[in-house]
């Protein structure tokens, strides 16, 4: 085999590496598009984690601007974001609804006892069908919904203080301004 015949596969390999490197730099994996922006939260009828006899629906999420956070006990990143969710629930006056995704109910309850519970209520999505309807790729994912239950924003990955301040809070502020302009004085 001569040296010249090695250049063809090497050239193809280098071209592929450059193409992939440029593609990965241009696309932020946390900015996945969502077909559901400006659409109502998907219809569901699922049990509450606190009381499996209680059925929750999309109407359970309406009435005020809120976050909907998809989480699971098997999700290492969910542990990382949890302190920020606790801070948001405590300091921001913003309700957070949880969707426990493809998880064991007893483990989920124990997890919330161990780490504390930032959620107004937790929806049990044991089979992951609601997550599929939301286009969820994995946990954690967080949605901002308006008071009518319409999805306004989707964040894939950990919600950190920086993400909340620079990404989620501006969306929430716009929604609150819009709501204030509609409400009579």
Characterization of this structure:
The structure is a single chain. By secondary structure, the protein is an alpha/beta fold. The chain has a single domain, classed as Glutaredoxin (3-Layer(aba) Sandwich), CATH 3.40.30. It is 43% helix and 18% strand. The protein has 5 helices and 7 strands. It has helices at 3-26, 76-91, 105-115, 129-134, 161-182, and strands spanning 45-47, 55-57, 66-71, 96-101, 121-125, 141-145, 151-156. A 5-stranded mixed beta sheet has the order 5-4-3-6-7. The protein is globular, with a radius of gyration of 21 Å. It starts with a helix and ends with a helix. Residues 22-30 have low confidence and may be disordered.
- What's the total number of strands? 7
Number of helices: 5
Computed structural class: alpha/beta
The CATH architecture name reads 3-Layer(aba) Sandwich
CATH uppermost class: Alpha Beta
Uncertain ranges = 22-30
Strand residues, percent:
15-25%
* CATH topology category name: Glutaredoxin
- Return the string of H and E elements: HEEEHEHEHEEH
| Overall tally of domains | 1
Instruction: Name the helicity range.
Output: 40-55%
Backbone CA Rg: 21 Å
CATH superfamily: Glutaredoxin
Q: What's the multimeric state?
A: single chain
Strand order of the largest sheet: 5-4-3-6-7
- Gap between N and C termini, in Å? 84 Å
Which whole number gives the mean pLDDT? 88
Q: How would you describe the shape?
A: globular
What's the story with the biggest beta sheet? 5 strands, mixed
């Amino acid at each position: 085999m001569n040296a010249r015949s090695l250049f063809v596969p090497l050239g193809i390999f280098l071209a592929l590496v450059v193409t992939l490197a440029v593609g990965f730099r241009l696309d932020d994996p946390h900015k996945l598009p969502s077909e559901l922006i400006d659409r109502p939260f998907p219809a569901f009828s699922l049990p509450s984690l606190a009381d499996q006899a209680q059925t929750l629906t999309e109407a359970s999420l309406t009435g005020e601007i809120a976050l909907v956070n998809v989480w699971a006990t098997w999700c290492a990143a969910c542990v990382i974001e949890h302190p920020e969710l606790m801070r948001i629930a405590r300091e921001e006056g913003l309700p957070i609804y949880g969707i426990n995704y493809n998880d064991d109910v007893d483990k989920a309850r124990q997890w919330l006892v161990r780490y504390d519970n930032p959620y107004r209520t937790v929806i049990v999505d044991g089979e992951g069908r609601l997550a599929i309807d939301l286009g969820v790729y994995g946990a954690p994912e967080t949605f901002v919904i308006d008071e009518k239950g319409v999805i306004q924003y989707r964040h894939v990955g950990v919600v950190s203080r920086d993400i909340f301040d620079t990404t989620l809070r501006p969306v929430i502020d716009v929604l609150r301004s819009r709501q204030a302009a509609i409400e009579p004085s």
